[in-house]
Write a structure and sequence with these properties.
mainly beta, Immunoglobulin-like, 2 domains, six-stranded mixed β-sheet, five-stranded mixed β-sheet, about 45% strand
């Protein structure tokens, strides 16, 4: 009997805890969402300031696609099985998730056209909810904002620089944000020949080569760059973002810029771990 009352008390406590937790949950009600009215065979576009990562459409009567990464296109399909439908007709919700926000809309099917029915809807901050993921993931828009702020600051003495065949590469600044490293790099061309960029690559490798067969080199792929540099005619400046990496003092970070054939000029710039440790917090 005591066991029964103990289990009953435990169940009641669990129920109370779940009730209290539910009271703190925030929910979006369908009637509170902004309404988008759709007509038969009508196409509506949703323009996002960020790349769209996920879309959920409640109704099977609506088809959607992404013509480009930040533009969602939806269209209401005709339903030949309906004999005498009633209007307006609820079509459920549309959920759009970008890199650091989520936006939801209520979809309604209307029979009659109206002058205020939109064909293009821009996702505004008023109708979005932010996704708090700064500690794990940094969105492209956030990287761009940080990168542009770095470019606005006055350049100080170069951390490292190198010059080969009239092409110079200079590391202006190293910045860190969360688990990301931002590299502010300048390129210059003092020759009369345009430098057609083939690749910009980064490697963590041994400082000294004792035996060729023991040499270790690991490539780091840039997660993002502010500009896509295809040619260097005189001076260029760019921001590259890599995932934060830890390597011992006997290794170095090598930056390599290579030119397309036939000329094939190449320039290397080596950055020590000491330079990485001295990075500025952004």
């Amino acid at each position: 009997m005591k066991t029964f009352y103990s289990l009953l008390s435990l169940s009641l406590l669990s129920l109370i805890a779940l009730t209290l937790q539910a009271q703190h949950l925030t929910a979006s009600n369908l009637n509170d969402l902004p309404t988008v009215t759709l007509l038969n065979e009508n196409t509506v576009h949703f323009l996002s300031p960020q790349p769209i990562k996920y879309v959920d459409i409640s109704s099977q009567r609506i088809k959607g696609d992404l013509p480009v990464e930040n533009l969602l296109r939806i269209k209401l399909l005709l339903d030949s099985t309906e004999t005498s439908p009633t209007y307006p007709k609820e079509l459920g919700t549309l959920t759009i998730v970008a890199e650091d926000f989520i936006s939801q809309y209520r979809l309604v099917h209307s029979k009659q056209a109206a002058p205020n029915i939109p064909s293009l809807i821009e996702l505004s901050p008023d109708n979005t909810r932010s996704i708090d993921n700064w500690g794990e993931h940094l969105s492209v828009s956030s990287m761009r904002e940080i990168g542009l702020n770095m470019l606005k600051k006055r350049k100080h003495k170069a951390i490292q620089k190198s010059k080969e065949h009239g092409i110079a590469m200079q590391l202006n600044k190293i910045g860190t944000f969360s688990d990301y490293i931002f590299l502010d790099i300048s390129f210059s061309n003092s020759t009369n020949l345009v430098y057609n960029v083939d690749e910009f690559r980064l490697f963590i490798e041994d400082k000294k080569i004792i035996k060729a067969n023991n040499f270790q080199s690991t490539e780091l792929m840039p997660l993002w760059s502010l500009h896509e540099i295809k040619q260097i005619k005189n001076k260029q400046r760019n921001i590259y973002v890599i995932k934060k990496a830890v390597f011992p003092g006997n290794k170095t970070l090598r930056l390599t810029l290579s030119e397309k054939q036939i000329s094939g000029r190449m320039i290397d710039l080596k950055v020590s771990y000491k330079d990485i440790l001295s990075a500025e917090s952004l």
